[in-house]
Amino acid sequence: MKKSILILIAILFFKISGAQDSSGIKPYWKSASELIFSLGNVEALGAGNQNMDVSAVLRFSAFFHFQEQLHFDFGNNFGMYTGIGIRNVGFINKLNDSITLKQRVYSLGIPIAFKLGNLPGGFYVAAGAEGELFFHYKQKVFYDDEKFKKKRLVF
Fold it and tell me: Which among 129, 138, 88, 128 is positioned nearest to 108, based on CA atoms?
């Protein structure tokens, strides 16, 4: 069911991108990417339900964050966009001196945002939201110089 909805949305994007309505609004495509710094706030219970001291490690991710955006400009100062994108988000946590936990997930996102500013000049501010569907999870546990991996599709 989820795959059918994503395929339908993709077909709709390509159909809309070639259209031009009677008001003269012609949609156009833009590509985007990003750098992600992530830090997790984790609370964990150890043996005997005692709080563990968990330290978060800053995770930098530059790879596999792509987005295709379909823009609609309703004038020189107002517009909106939607699209489809993929993102790699994760956390690294040190549970103690000998255990490190690394987790990451790939997600498929569909944003919608409204933009205000000088659209022909390319200077604008956008505000919106994005729904994401997680599809691939990976976890690595490092324990005393040994590595344990776990991968799975989330569908």
Answer: 88
